[in-house]
Design brief:
Number of helices: 17
Largest sheet: 5 strands, parallel
Helix content: 55-70%
Strand order of the largest sheet: 6-9-10-3-11
Order of helices and strands: HHHHHHHHHHEEEHEEHEEHHEHEHEHE
Shape: elongated
Structural class: alpha/beta
Strand content: 5-15%
Radius of gyration: 33 Å
CATH class of the largest domain: Mainly Alpha
Oligomer: single chain
Distance between the termini: 43 Å
CATH topology of the largest domain: ABC transporter transmembrane region fold
Number of strands: 11
């Protein structure tokens, strides 16, 4: 796991380091003043200086509490900023590649949420180990070199033991986490289909299946917890024994007069603080596994954003011609390429219909032209500009892509048409949206609520909604995937007439199996494998 790859600015790490450094000095001050108070009261019986020592002790305790509060707040802010940045990159990356909705949801919620452990679970012990441990060790070295020598000898034992446990349990732990993920998907899949099971009276047959899943989930969870307990118990045991050995050694040296009471008591107070970060290393180990797994999943999407181009579309002749040169694309895990060395030309200002049997890659071709997917080989040109080198904002001003089943968001019909481009509609925008609604024949008010909690749309109405979005965006390149599928012949003719008026000054690529639409288009191209 490369921490440097995380989108965290270096400035965000400076404040926690400085705060942890000050906390380390407060720990030293607290230990020394507490030992001074005990020594003055019980050994020297000097009550004259006790008030001053108590005041300094209270000062160090309050400052430490405040610094700890600000440290936790700084780590929380860094975690929040990291999650915001990752979700922004996911949003941007989703515009460059095709990501299933359920996977994007898991990445945005579960995987990004897991990254919070980097600051809440992993960072505090690491800061203590890197800053507090050396300061406490140097202080102990000054107070008692023999104790410092024992601490330096025993210090590597805990990390070495944790590394050995990690080597033995890493594969088992990863397998258990993978099993937990598979079981979670199985639960979600069963719950998502519960309505269908009830409709067909099959819910009782799923009881044994759910019971088996629950039993497997419990076993997998207990195995993970058992591994976590073993590593934590080993660390607690080694650190406790080390503290006990040092305490006994200090006690004997105090008994034989080789060390004064205040110094011995201060050392005993510093020992738990020294070994506390090592005790937390077990939680850090399992937190790192979670963060590494989540980061590996996120990198597949967020790293794609770095491939954005640098060219603008200002110099393009609009509408542009589109040229595909030796395009090849294979989906991850697929045995054969979906598109293999495909070359096509779409004339500027024309309507081209793509047809062919299912599975030939027509929808994939549209996603490639839209920039949602990136070809493994070959290039896509808009006039003389490589599509992959055009910056995303500029590309979005050029291309409109309407999938076969446009998504309906929770919001008004106007929000769904303009895709939440604004929060306040002007009178001119309302007139434009109303005109588009009437033109596509939706027969709904612009304020009609849609999506969850609102009105549902039929398949034909979804098609009209997608066309309304294309009309609203009014971009020079329009990509339509089966815009008339499932429509009656009369409805199809109405949409084709509307598309004919809309097509002026645009390069349109449309996928359809209907003979009517092929005859309507300027050019029809059959997509097939060689």
């Amino acid at each position: 796991m490369n921490i440097k790859a995380f989108p965290v600015p270096k400035q965000a790490l400076i404040a926690p380091c400085l705060l942890q450094l000050l906390i380390s000095f407060c720990i030293l001050g607290t230990a020394w003043q507490l030992s001074q108070v005990v020594c003055d009261v019980f050994i020297n019986q000097d009550y004259h200086h006790t008030a001053v020592s108590l005041g300094l002790l209270l000062f160090f305790l309050l400052v430490k509490a405040l610094l700890t509060f600000f440290l936790n707040k700084a780590l929380h802010n860094s975690s929040r900023q990291l999650q915001i940045t990752l979700r922004q990159r996911l949003h941007q990356g989703a515009g460059h590649q095709s990501i299933p909705g359920h996977r994007l949801q898991i990445l945005a919620l579960d995987s990004v949420g897991t990254m919070d452990k980097l600051f809440t679970l992993i960072a505090p012990p690491l800061l203590s180990i890197s800053l507090s441990l050396p300061i406490i060790l140097m202080t102990v070295l000054y107070l008692d070199p023999w104790s410092a020598l024992i601490m330096m000898v025993t210090l590597p034992i805990a990390p070495l033991l944790l590394w050995l446990i990690g080597q033995m349990t890493r594969r088992a732990t990863l397998e258990q986490w993978k099993q937990l993920e598979e079981l979670t998907f199985a639960f979600k899949d069963t719950l998502a289909g519960m309505v269908s099971l009830k409709i067909f009276r099959q819910e009782n047959q799923q009881k044994s299946h759910l019971a088996a899943l629950g039993h497997l989930f419990s076993r997998a969870s207990l195995k993970v917890l058992r591994l976590a307990f073993i590593s934590s118990f080993a660390l607690e045991l080694i650190t406790t024994l080390t503290i006990a050995i040092l305490a006994v050694a200090i006690g004997f040296r105090l008994l034989y007069g080789e060390m004064d009471f205040q110094r011995a008591f201060c050392l005993l107070l510093l020992l738990p603080e020294f070994y506390q970060p090592l005790r937390q290393s077990g939680m850090v180990f399992h937190g790192i596994i979670d963060v590494r797994t989540a980061w590996a999943q996120l990198q597949q999407v967020v790293d794609q954003h770095g491939q954005a181009g640098t060219e603008q579309h200002d110099t393009l002749r609009l509408p542009p011609k589109i040229l595909l040169s030796n395009i090849s694309f294979t989906y991850p895990g697929a045995p054969l390429p979906t598109l293999d060395k495909l070359s096509l030309a779409f004339p500027a200002g024309s309507i081209t219909c793509l047809y062919g049997t299912s599975g030939m890659g027509k929808s994939t071709l549209l996603k490639l032209v839209a920039g949602l997917l990136t070809p493994q080989t070959g290039h896509i040109f808009l006039e003389d500009k490589d599509l992959g080198k055009i910056v995303p904002d500029s590309r979005h001003k050029l291309i409109t892509y309407i999938p076969q089943s446009p998504h309906v968001f929770q919001g008004s019909l106007a929000d769904n048409i303009c895709l939440f481009a604004t929060t306040a509609y002007t009178e001119e925008m309302r007139r434009k949206i109303t005109h588009i609604i009437n033109a596509v024949g939706l027969h709904l008010s612009s304020n009609t609520p849609l999506g969850a909690g609102g009105q549902g749309l039929s398949h034909g109405e979804r098609q009209r909604l997608g066309l309304a979005r294309a009309l609203y965006q009014n971009r020079p390149v329009v990509l339509l995937d089966e815009p008339t599928a499932g429509l009656e012949a009369e409805e199809e003719q109405e949409l084709l007439q509307l598309l004919s008026r809309f097509a002026k000054g645009k390069t349109i690529i449309v996928i359809s199996h209907h003979q009517t639409l092929r005859q309507w288009a300027d050019t029809a191209i059959e997509v097939h494998h060689e």
